[in-house]
Specification:
The chain has one domain: Rossmann fold, CATH 3.40.50. The chain is 40% helix and 21% strand. Strands 7-6-5-8-9-10 form a 6-stranded mixed sheet. The chain has a two-stranded antiparallel ribbon with strand order 1-4. The protein is globular and about 55 Å long.
């Protein structure tokens, strides 16, 4: 998960600037899992800002080139990875497909939308990694179709230990453009959070399933 700290901090700055990431330790969000969280991330907002969208696309291309080389196909994970994945595929001049969470219940019952062939090499594109579960379902769907998944690249990761373990177990190398540590560093440097908030954010990161905000 090595990356340039300068570019990682720049991505973090952009995410905070457009409120793609919102930090709210005193009024936490509730995730679909039921976890209380002082942070909420919606990287799809980056698509509405051409300068930021372009920077992220270029960083994806650089990360893929440096760590994997050019694959045969780019696969976006629905829904957050579809648009940015298509932009990356366009930049590389290669085919694009996207992977649904599960096969459709009607029509051709596709899980993978687009044209992909057995034996082709694939890089999977995600907007966000939390536990890695949805990402790895897409990876497995591609493998089940005979594809060679070279790895996965995402905009942001919370750096949960469970994600690292899940990716390692699935033999899926992955890289992110920025992560939780870089985000917090940029938020502190920009005076967006203070000491008490910092303590709360670190406590959540250490044990997100049990965390509750301080009263």
């Amino acid at each position: 998960m090595n990356f340039s700290e300068d570019s990682a901090l720049k991505v973090a700055e952009f995410l905070l600037q457009i409120k793609a990431v919102v930090l709210r330790p005193q009024e936490p969000f509730t995730w679909a899992s039921g976890w209380k969280s002082p942070i909420y991330c919606d990287n799809r907002k980056t698509l509405s800002y051409p300068k930021i969208r372009t920077f992220i696309r270029q960083e994806f291309v650089k990360t893929i080139d440096e760590n994997f080389g050019t694959p045969d196909v780019i696969a976006g994970v629905a829904t957050g990875g579809i648009a940015i994945g298509a932009l990356v595929a366009q930049e590389l001049g290669i085919p694009f497909v996207y992977v649904r969470p599960e096969p459709k219940k009607h029509g051709l019952t596709n899980q993978i939308e687009g044209v992909i062939e057995e034996g082709q090499s694939v890089i999977v594109i995600e907007d966000l990694i939390s536990t890695g579960g949805s990402s790895l379902r897409a990876v497995q769907a591609l493998r089940d179709n005979g594809c060679i998944v070279k790895g996965l690249v995402a905009i942001f990761s919370y750096n949960f230990d469970v994600a690292e373990e899940n990716m390692k177990k699935a033999l899926c190398p992955y890289f992110t453009l920025t992560n939780y540590e870089m985000l917090i560093k940029k938020a502190v440097d920009s005076n967006l959070i203070g000491g008490n908030d910092m303590k709360s954010l670190r406590a959540w990161r250490a044990n997100p399933s049990e965390w509750t905000p301080e009263k």
